[in-house]
Design brief:
Number of helices: 10
Distance between the termini: 49 Å
Helix content: under 10%
Structural class: mainly beta
Strand content: over 45%
């Protein structure tokens, strides 16, 4: 009986509990547009663990234990709202949007600010505005998105290296690479052993926002590494009250975007006869550009989870990305995982954040230069296959490139971990201490091997080049921040100390002469018969820094930012180890003044002005120290042993390979900026205008001494008085229509004009680009000349073909001879202006977006045409374009001299990407209880390019250098770009 009573009491209790629960439901809409808002977090105040989110149509349903209470509604971009409820009822909740972008939080160095308080020139791109499609790294996400930032890929290879040029090229030796800061961790730009882009290790889908710090006021807090600007990458974090699961799957198909117009087989036969050449007719009709390319298939799967409570938040993701290039044996595979955590304790005074990214990268690369050369020059009458096997009897005894592809491999495996933990404690109100410990560990192994091969006409010895690289980067930072307000005055004071140590270790060896036994060389190194070449290196660099910043605001009208950073680098000698980098900026929120406060048209008008200095330490390690080697040649030895008959019996002597120079100083960039931010018509039209002037001094170079009697042929020094100047104007405009309508649109764009000039250079020319092969190796193509832009093309001016069938060039100095002093500056590889614009349309659940970008005023040197598309090649049965027959009287023996004959217009307009998407309500397919949203999309990348350039693509940046000075604008058989169609599915739970 007691058991029965107990069961009855339990059942009654359960019934009472269930009867005590009530359901509160409703819909959430936007205040202005009156449209449903999906993804809003809804929870009962004091019970965040029971949070739910609104579905695609803005509906929600939540269970309450009490008959009345308060619901909390929160969502990014809207103001948090509390609504009381009583009993079972259906609510209609209206959320107000945050006022324009002025309240948008922008990440700056060692902190963040509201956009309305920013005094520097900062470009910010959020994840919803990133470029879409098959994307390997952060640079691709923001191409064309920020005024004054030129993002150029080295080639069309998956994950190719990039140049991100912020406000012009301001250095010679240190290149254009900006400083990358990921979640507060400053990455090192030194070698990681990966031949492709070092940023490929970051999964683009993990990135929440990218800020570009353009002027010195914004970037000077990073001091010695900010001369080329700073790119701040912030990954996605969890948010309180929201629990989300997101799955995205994409599949892309890539094909050759553009074909060079070489002769078809029939045209080739006629053209060889026209030039009285030696036709080697294989009887076939082959398009080698088709045969040596493929349709690359790229697949991406990404799963992310995030959520949180009042005290803790989390965000985690795993991703698999496999990108295939249009050339065979061209693949980039990335396996990534990310975990971001935050936890509060001790009445929210103690806060700790943890960020972890782990990546395994597999990069396979083809011998692209050789393949592209074959695609364009091989005899189109040669058959690809004979009896189902690759043809081994090709014209000019060329090895069939299909066999070369099979025999060649270049594979890099990279494992990388980036992690940092940042505990902070608020001692008193407004005073917070923060410690940041970060590590970046990278280990790479690269194997470049060629399988042995022998035929009647071709013999290749098997070879192996193995390179192992370890890169360790450790960061320790201590910062103290004090925020306080007194009436109309607001202050934020930051003081900090930073120590960073980078260690790079590399070992390599070369082997050749492997037996043809079906085993790859890397798996039988002991069988190599040829001499082994071994090498190793170790570099350790340290950077010790002290920095401070003051942000002051009066009545939200008048703003002041002042920073100072002192950097001590082990790369510099004891006499100039520390560099000092100050900056100051002023801001005036004009619309806060009484005469504009009530304006209904002008919502924001802010004037900014800044001045500051940044530095560069991107120079080789140890250059301030003397270095020696041994030698027993020339005057380096003496025959101490009278019985010695040749140099082998002489003793070795010690000689200098580098002289000590402890006086080397920091390269310094001084920048002035004046800017205007504005928005009108209820913030629908917004924009910025900036003028900048950047001057780089103390230019660091390795140069030949003026005195020919020196123990070394070159030495490192600062070039006195030499300056690199960049000045220009940036304009950005955006307009959005009324989003409350079924149909809405937004348009916008940016354009920047940059004038680059080198002044007071003591050298006639510093070569930045030289010819390779074709009988012209080493000949200057472009360089640095006093009074001209970096990358200026310096060459003879081609005027036509003379009566003797040979080149004619302009005698510019009128001395009757054509010599080097007749060369002219014929344009620059750097564009005069870059621009981009977008068009976005939305109709109910359907959206369509276009992103364009382009450049103008620059030239491209078509090295491919100079090397291959000439009359002599055609006469010898190598394929060419109609360049070879352009001049009917040209002799087949005419030389392909570096000249304006091969200089072309590099201007272009590209449809970078276009996306058509549809947001499908899960309720319509019976999945409303499981999913919050389903999005289907199709994206096209590089759909068309309008250009006069005759090569594969006008966006040329091969990443080569001459004397460690970076080259620009020369097409050295670059990996061709692809056109890609991507199908995407995104599901939110």
């Amino acid at each position: 009986m007691k058991k029965i009573y107990a069961l009855l009491i339990l059942a009654f209790g359960c019934m009472s509990y269930s009867y005590g629960q009530i359901n509160v439901s409703g819909i959430v809409i936007s205040d202005v547009e009156k449209v449903p808002v999906p993804g809003v977090s809804v929870y009962i105040k004091g019970e965040p663990k029971g949070a739910v989110t609104t579905d695609f149509d803005g509906n929600f349903k939540i269970k309450a234990q009490q008959n009345d209470g308060v619901l909390v509604f929160s969502y990014v971009g809207f103001k948090t709202k509390e609504v009381s409820f009583s009993g079972t009822q259906k609510l209609t909740v209206s959320l107000a949007e945050e006022v324009s972008t002025l309240n948008e939080v922008v990440v700056v160095g060692y902190g963040s600010q509201k956009r309305s308080d920013v005094t520097g020139a900062i470009g910010s791109v959020k994840s919803e505005n990133f470029n879409k499609g098959v994307v390997a790294n952060a640079g691709q996400l923001i191409q064309g998105k920020v005024a004054g930032v030129n993002v150029m890929a080295a080639s069309g290879e998956p994950g190719a290296n990039q140049d991100i040029i912020i406000r012009g090229v301001g250095s010679l030796r240190s290149g254009t690479t900006p400083l990358y800061v990921v979640d507060g961790f400053a990455l090192d730009n030194s070698n990681t052993g990966v031949a492709s882009n070092p940023l490929n290790f970051i999964n683009p889908q993990d990135i929440e926002s990218i800020e570009v710090l353009k002027d010195a006021s914004a970037s000077a807090i990073y001091g010695s590494r900010a001369a080329n600007g700073v790119v701040v990458i912030t990954t996605k974090k969890g948010a309180k009250g929201q629990s989300k699961i997101n799955l995205s799957v994409t599949t892309g198909f890539s094909s050759l975007a553009n074909k060079v117009d070489v002769f078809s087989a029939d045209e080739f036969r006629r053209q060889v006869a026209t030039v009285n050449g030696n036709l080697q007719d294989g009887g076939a009709n082959t398009d080698w550009q088709d045969e040596l390319t493929r349709t690359g298939v790229s697949q991406n799967v990404n799963l992310s989870m995030s959520g949180g409570t009042e005290k803790s938040t989390y965000a985690a993701s795993v991703g698999v990305d496999n990108q295939e290039g249009v050339l065979r044996n061209s693949d980039l595979k990335r396996y990534s995982g990310r975990l971001n955590l935050s936890q509060k304790a001790l009445d929210d005074k103690f806060n700790i954040t943890f960020n972890l990214t782990g990546t395994k990268l597999e990069n396979e690369r083809p011998d692209a230069r050789s393949i592209v050369g074959n695609m364009l020059t091989m005899n189109p009458t040669d058959a690809v296959y004979v009896n189902g096997e690759p043809n081994v009897n090709l014209s000019n005894d060329i090895l069939n490139p299909l066999i070369s592809e099979r025999n060649y491999s270049d594979v890099t495996n990279n494992n990388r971990i980036l992690a940092n933990i940042s505990p902070s404690y608020e001692f008193i109100k407004g005073l917070t201490y923060k410690f940041n410990l970060g590590v970046d560990y990278s280990m790479s192994e690269r194997d470049i091997q060629v399988l042995p091969y022998a035929s009647a006409t071709n013999t290749t010895l098997g070879s192996l080049n193995n390179v192992i690289t370890n890169n360790n980067n450790v960061l320790y930072e201590n910062t103290l921040t004090y925020n306080f307000n007194k009436k109309a005055h607001s202050f934020t004071v930051l003081a900090g100390q930073s120590y960073q140590k980078i260690q790079v270790y590399q070992k390599s060896y070369n082997l050749s002469g492997f037996p043809n036994n079906g085993v790859e060389p890397k798996n039988q190194i002991e069988t190599a018969s040829e001499r082994t070449t071994q090498s190793s290196s170790a570099v350790e660099n340290e950077l010790q820094s002290f920095f401070g910043r003051l942000n002051y605001g009066y009545d939200n009208k008048y703003l002041l930012t002042a920073t100072m950073r002192a950097d001590g680098s082990s790369k510099f000698g004891k006499n100039n180890r520390y560099g000092y980098f100050p900056s100051v900026a002023l801001g005036w929120n004009i619309t806060k003044e009484d005469f504009l406060k009530e304006s209904e048209t002008l919502n924001n008008l802010k004037l900014r002005a800044s001045w500051g200095q940044t530095g560069s330490q991107e120079i080789p390690s140890k250059i301030t120290k003397a270095s020696y080697t041994e030698s027993n040649t020339g005057n380096d030895t003496y025959p101490l042993d009278p019985s010695a008959t040749d140099l082998s019996g002489y003793p070795y002597g010690s000689i200098y390979t580098r002289l000590a120079n402890p006086n080397i100083q920091w390269e310094v960039s001084t920048q002035t900026n004046v800017g205007l931010d504005f928005s009108l018509f209820n913030n629908r039209l917004s924009g910025t205008v900036d003028y900048f002037n950047k001057v780089s001094e103390n230019i660091l170079l390795e140069v030949a001494p003026t005195d020919p009697i020196q123990p070394t042929s070159k030495y490192w020094t600062n070039i006195p008085a030499m300056q690199i100047k960049n000045n220009g104007i940036e304009v950005a405009l955006d307009y959005s229509s009324d989003k409350s309508k079924d149909f809405s649109y937004s348009v916008g764009g940016n354009i920047s004009f940059t004038n680059n000039k080198v002044e007071n250079s003591p050298y006639q020319i510093l070569t930045t680009g030289g010819a390779q092969g074709g009988g012209q190796s080493g000949a200057t193509i472009n360089g640095v000349l006093n009074g001209h832009s970096i990358g200026s093309f310096y060459m003879l001016n081609f005027t036509g073909i003379g009566s003797n069938g040979l080149n004619q060039f302009a005698d510019t100095n009128g001395d009757g001879s054509i010599l080097d002093n007749d060369r002219i500056v014929a344009g620059s590889a750097l564009p005069d202006y870059i621009y981009a614009f977008y068009l976005n349309f939305k109709y109910k659940n359907l959206d369509l977006g276009f992103n364009f970008n382009g450049a103008g005023g620059n030239k491209i040197y078509n090295h491919v045409a100079m090397t291959s598309f000439n009359r002599g090649s055609l006469a010898n049965s190598f394929n060419t374009t109609d360049r070879a027959s352009q001049y009917l009287n040209e002799a087949s023996t005419n030389s392909n001299t570096v000249s304006t004959r091969y200089l072309e217009d590099g201007s272009f307009l590209r449809l970078n990407n276009a996306t058509l998407g549809y947001n499908l309500s899960p309720r319509l397919v019976g999945l409303g209880d499981v999913m919050d949203n389903i999005r289907l999309s199709i994206t096209g990348q590089n759909l068309f390019v309008i250009t006069k350039y005759s090569g594969y693509d006008p966006e040329i940046n091969t990443g080569t250098s001459v004397g460690d000075i970076q080259s620009f604008g020369i097409d050295y058989f670059s990996y061709p770009r692809s056109r890609t169609i991507v199908f995407g599915l995104n599901v939110a739970f």
